Every structure is written in C-alpha cells, then in structure tokens.
Amino acid sequence: MIVDNKMTLSEFQARALLSSGQGPKIFKRNRVFRPETVVYFDQNVFSDLNDDEIAFCKKNRKTKFAYSPAHAEEIFRMQQSEKKDRIIRIISHLTNGLSIQPKRIKEPMKFFKEELSYVIDRCKSDRDATGAVEQVKIANIDSNKNPDLERVKEVNSRTSNVLMDLTDEEFSKLIKESKSHSPSPRKEDFSKFRDFGSINHCFYTLHNILDVMNFKVDRGERAKRSALYDIEHSKYASACDIFVTEDKRLLSRAKIIFEFMKIKTRVGTKEQFFSGAM
Fold it and tell me: What is the pTM of this model?
C-alpha cells in the first residue's frame, strides 16, 4: 500500500491543529520537561494490558508512559463500547496525562501534560477536519495487486536493513515511485531532520518506499486505515525511548526506519518489555 502524503498545507495544518490545541477549541495543556525514560505503547498494547501488567507499569516510578494524538484519533474513530471506555481509563491511568505532541510544525515534538479526554474532545469539536484528513490519506493508498513475488521473497528474507542497502540512485528512484513528498532525495539527510513537519514527511516517505519494495506489506481494505495509524504511532514513538508493539509488520518497519534515521528509540514486543529484555 502506498500512502501519498502530498497533503495540501491546509490539510496538514488541520492535523497539526487537532494535535496541538491551536484550533478553534483551545484546551489547557502544560509543557513539561522530558522524563528520563519514556515508553510508548501502541493502541493494541494498551488495550490488551491485564491488571498485573498495569500494576507492574505503575510500580516503576522512573519509567513514564506517554500517549499521542494518534491514540486520541484512533479512539475517536472507535464505536462507543466497553472496550473504548476501558482503553481510555488505562491510558489515562498509566500516562497521568503525559503526552507527546507537536507545538509548531517547524519545531521538534514536545512533552505536555494534558488529559486524554481533552484531546479526544478536540477531535470531536473538529469532527469534520478529523474525518477529512483521514479520508485524504486513505483515498491515496494504492495496493499493489500484482507484486513481483520473487522480489517480495528476496526483500523480506534479508537480514540487513533494506533501506540502508539502497544506493543513492535507487533511493531517489523509489521516492519517485512511491509518489512521496519527501523532504529530501538524499539518504543522508533523513538522519538530520527532527522538526515535526519534516519528521512527518520522512515517516510517510519511508513507509511508502517499503511498500514499493513490498517489504512486510498488508493488503486489503481493513489494512488501509491500519497503515495510517502504524505510521502515526511510529512517528510519535520516535520521540520516546522505548516503543512497544505486538504488530510484527510495524515492529520490523519501525526498527528499520529508526536505524535508517539514526533514531535511538528501542523497539520490542510486550513480552520483551515486561521481561526486561529491552
């Protein structure tokens, strides 16, 4: 699936406004210093935590847990249910309002204290913008229905970093094939970007390149929306120390992208996290 991230400025700003509280509805948030160790769980990890695991997380006072606008937007799209209420309670309880959000597009992401319910309310108040941004991205996902199966097998069997293996010429060509609005055509530049706007484009570009390469690609209609949130969660997790996911595809892609961009975030499974292997 290829996500065309050539969003118009107004569409990109719509997402930024939803995230940062600078839109029509402004909610209280306080900037805080970055904690020493920050853990980012993706949505499924939060939803699958049991009582013992929640208690374990709360006991470790040095480790802090953060949520992002991606969690709020994903929750907002869920149907009202006990599962939805439960995940809101778990995220609120574990993060105590600690969130990673953009402040300005041309600045790195920052840490804030803001209740999750406020961010969800912001999505509700800008319901049309929330839906429009999501639909723009989904409409531009193009599943490759006739992949080169030999190429798929070869790429997915590699033990090295498939992005780092690319020559500059190959990388530039793949950017064009992926229809991505890349911040740069050069591989070495991707490790230099840290402002929110560039990071956003970097993550969409690299995920799209992996799609063109048929690396760990999900296919089908349901996979389209999932791909959007995978990109969003990995983007926000890049500002934290540890990223935990049970999605094998996302885990593989995040490791490759973080290494390629020289991001130090460690990536692992729920079992690895709770066993202390991370």
Answer: 0.83
